[in-house]
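Quick one, tokens below:
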């Protein structure tokens, strides 16, 4: 923590895997989602990204994955590189993003649909440059039947193939957006163990946005809690007081969200000042196109 207002996650003696500095981003220039967002994440960290619906988790992960452009690219760096411009980061497999959609960007091949009449084998073995040992390990771990036809499998089975394809290359940074929601309990826990190993043994970095906290107390190294695009809490998980007392991440997050709702309700009952009427964020709305959203 600290360092000129930049929130730091992990071993600060190492070079950051992710650095976000004074980031601004707006879907709507009149209501910026991120106004001055700072975050540093170091190798080996497993950060849980937590927040209410609409708080900005997916948007942040997409920005970190280079899918949204933000003003001044020097402020969002992954592995020291500008994510939006440096497409090699994703193509090389160093930066992996697994999100909610049923498609996965695989190198320069673009978006490959996971619902066509293809076999799981065709999909998985179609990813070039994969290490066969790692591939076999993932197929085994995710209990994938290579004969599955992608247009006939269940959501959970399709998700397993998506995860397998996304992890075939030994990523350095992995961004996960609620991808375990369709997995059965055993597959989810085995998958989380695999990811833990990747961080402990290779120094990989993971940022994982989720609303499901089962088993994550001992998995995560850090918590990053955001509210309406604002970073509210960043802590090593062992330093979270509420968690020390309850030992339960679910109830800890529940208490934060309930407090947030309460404060929001309270705020709505107080009449806004003149400056707040001009801008809900207390500063001029962004007018420059530099702050507008660009999508991939
Ligand atoms: N493409 C878009 N265009 C305009 N506004 C958007 C777009 N995507 C998201 N938003 C808005 O940005 C805010 C943050 O959305 P985001 O999806 O990042 O939240 P989230 O924390 O991931 O939510 P959830 O927990 O529901 O997945 C929300 O208010 C949402 O309405």
């Amino acid at each position: 923590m600290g360092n000129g207002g930049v929130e730091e996650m992990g071993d600060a003696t190492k070079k950051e895997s992710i650095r976000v500095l004074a980031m601004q981003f707006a879907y709507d220039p009149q209501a910026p989602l991120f106004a001055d967002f700072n975050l540093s994440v170091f190798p080996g960290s497993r950060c849980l990204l937590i927040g209410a619906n609409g708080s900005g988790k997916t948007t942040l992960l997409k920005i970190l994955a280079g899918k949204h452009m933000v003003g001044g690219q020097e402020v969002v760096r992954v592995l020291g590189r500008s994510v939006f411009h440096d497409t090699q980061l994703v193509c090389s497999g160093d930066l992996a993003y697994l999100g909610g959609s049923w498609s996965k960007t695989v190198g320069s091949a673009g978006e490959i649909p996971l619902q066509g009449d293809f076999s799981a084998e065709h999909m998985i073995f179609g990813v070039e440059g994969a290490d066969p040992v790692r591939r076999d390990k993932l197929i085994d771990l995710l209990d994938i039947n290579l004969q599955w036809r992608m247009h006939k499998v269940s959501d959970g089975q399709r998700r397993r193939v998506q995860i397998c394809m996304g992890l075939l290359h030994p990523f350095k940074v992995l961004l996960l957006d609620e991808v375990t929601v369709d997995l059965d309990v055993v597959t989810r826990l085995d998958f989380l163990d695999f990811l833990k190993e990747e961080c402990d043994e290779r120094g990989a970095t993971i940022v994982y946005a989720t609303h499901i906290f089962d088993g994550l107390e001992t998995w995560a190294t850090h918590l990053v809690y955001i509210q309406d695009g604002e970073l509210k809490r960043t802590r090593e998980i062992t330093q979270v007081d509420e968690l020390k007392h309850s030992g339960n991440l679910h109830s800890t997050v529940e208490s934060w969200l309930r407090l947030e709702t309460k404060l929001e309700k309270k705020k709505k009952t107080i009449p806004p000042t003149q400056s707040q009427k001009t801008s809900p964020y207390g500063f001029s709305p962004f007018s420059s196109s530099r702050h507008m959203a660009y999508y991939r």
